[in-house]
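new request in #modeling-help
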Amino acid sequence: MAMKARHKRFILIAIGLALLGLAAMLILNAFKSNMVFFYTPTQVEKGEVPKGTGFRVGGLVVPGSLKRQDDGLTVRFEITDTAKTIPVVYKGILPDLFKEGKGVVAQGKVGASGLFEASEVLAKHDENYMPPEAAEALKRAKGQGAGTLASPK
Amino acid sequence: MIPEIGHFALILALLVALVQGSFPIIGAARGNAVWMGLARPAARAQFLLISVAFLCLAYAFATMDYSVTYVASNSNSKLPLQYRIAAVWGGHEGSLLLWAMILSVWTVAVSFFSKHLPDAMRARILGVMGLISIGFLLFMLTVSNPFERLIPAAMDGRDLNPLLQDPGMVFHPPMLYMGYVGFSVAFAFAIAALLGGELDAAWARWSRPWTTLAWVFLTTGIMAGSNWAYYELGWGGWWFWDAVENASFMPWLVGTALIHSLAVTEKRGSFKAWTVLLAICAFSLSLLGTFLVRSGVLTSVHAFATDPRRGLFILAFLVVVIGGSLALFAWRAPTIARGGKFDVVSRESFLLANNVLLAVAAISVLFGTLYPLFLDALGLGKISVGPPYFDTVFAPLMTPALFLMGIGPIARWKQAALPELAKRLRWAFGVSAATAIILPLFLGHWTPMIGLGLFLAFWIFGTSVNLIYQRLGGSGQPLVTRVKSTSRSWWGMVIAHLGIAVFTLGVTIVKGFESEIAVRMQTGDVAHLAGFDFTFEGVTATEGPNYTASRGQIRITKNGVERTVLAPEKRVYTVQNMPMTEAGISPSIIHDLYASLGEPLDNGAWSVRIYHKPMVEWIWVGCLMMAFGGLLALSDKRYRLRKRTIQAGGV
């Protein structure tokens, strides 16, 4: 081991940089493959959403649209941004604050049936707070001159 | 009248903070002893004034003074007293007051336990803490005043968010804040050292116990939050990679790196600049965390209504603190003397590698948390990254970190020999590898992640046993002497590391072997999970002080023998008409049996979620062991308070 201190230092720095580069790649790759985009019901309707991969959609739950299947666990409801409405199917227990006429965000993908199959349904954390994605969807629809459905708080 | 006294006390505290943040620092630069001497009385006066303000707000809550806006929006006459008190920090304004209160607690503690510090050093430290306090007090007094009056007064309050009405609310925020704010001491030490140009082993020894104590609080606070989420949300999860959790996890990762880097600086005089940088980053991330969570940028129970002026103030404050301290670092760091040299294979390099891994982990969390916010702020679209991103990143980062953790304490300082290390650790390696392969077969199934997790957990157990054996075994002195001659900080390190092993084991087992079902249940229905029979015995209506509830009864039997009865509840808090799930949990060291009520269906049936969580409690026990290890290290002899010379002669 007759290596000069300077060489040793150089090799160490090179190894360090290579490892950091590797870490950066790992982070960016993980980020890219786990990124979930958000769309409004209008965009879903227009077919702007990716096929086969998951995404999020947000808006208000259409009053009267919540239907429960016989197994008691599968539910269907509709999400609207007041311009367009898309049907959603979800098997599982809805969050405490899920309510018709209130804001909601669903994550999932469009299945073979054309329905949005949600794997996760998020509602807000308190009564007066709307998920920002849901608020955004309503805002965008409003900008496009759609009518109002309920006053989003 | 009382709220006005509180408000006035805050104004006086700001004036005192202005004195504390200016004169001592200028005095230290000019060698003016009188100006430096102002630091301690100012720190104590500030503590008294902020305490008065805090007590005034608590009094307003206790006496239900709904002429105070903050009280009216976060309390209610039906709210039990303990939650009315905890509601002091249940909203934006009050949680900032808690922050300022805790900052003054740390500051006054430094003022009392710093007799051994050189005068200039102490003046600078207290001065820097005064500067931080100015920022918070100014923020409260300009845009976020908890004492603002509501005219006319409300008849009753809007109630504390029901999610927060839990014993967790009493402990979790103060603990977490003690951790966050505690890093301000390490930060102030670092800035003081940069200003004074005195960065040596003695500096590290002074700074270390404060940093460790802050880390102990932060660990406990995060653990309490995780445990709270587990039983409160009714989803059976203990960590969600929620932006709010990330906000507390980032300072923890950097703080963990910091306490290790400080150890090297104290013992070997190396890593000085890096240690200072970590101290700056740990506190900057604490500030960022506080503000991310409290500014309403994030959607969560922790975020409160937003006010654009607040966001602007927060951003400006962050820029000043983080930018200013990093600029100071860039300016002064080149003057820091180089520390002792060390070889490629040495304890120093193992610790350095772990430090870098922890820092990269913190960066990955920062990236995953902030990047979506940036995109959104710039109008480039809304995206989110969930747990899959963090899981993908953390496994490859933590695997080498945990592996090196087993070797680090065994390797010699300065220069270690790989063959010798390999020889010494071959048993630990063999045992953990064998466990990783064989144990899952007995437990049911094997996956690479289960194998990896078990390997790492048992690797840390094994290497710790080896470490203890080497320290206590051998011939010569009797065992008792050897135990006595071993320092408490060494035991603290071993116990904290074992805590990591316990934690890793808990995470691996619960992730690998947990099971859950969601079912529709009518009275008399039986669900089966993990060999247990869950009989639903119906729901009865009950009432709490400020809620009505449906309480379910679920009897658990195994092979016909009764084990326990769970009583999950679905509550509706009447003031805000907000539903809440209260899970029924039967915890044990082997597994948790967990049930929560979903929604009422037709004919008295309910949707019910049932979970079997093997060894989930080990996760929190592991965290408590880490915190206990930290406390033990703190009680070490060499930190006992006594007069010390200012010389740099490290141990």
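bot summary: Residues 201-232 of chain B form the longest helix (32 residues).
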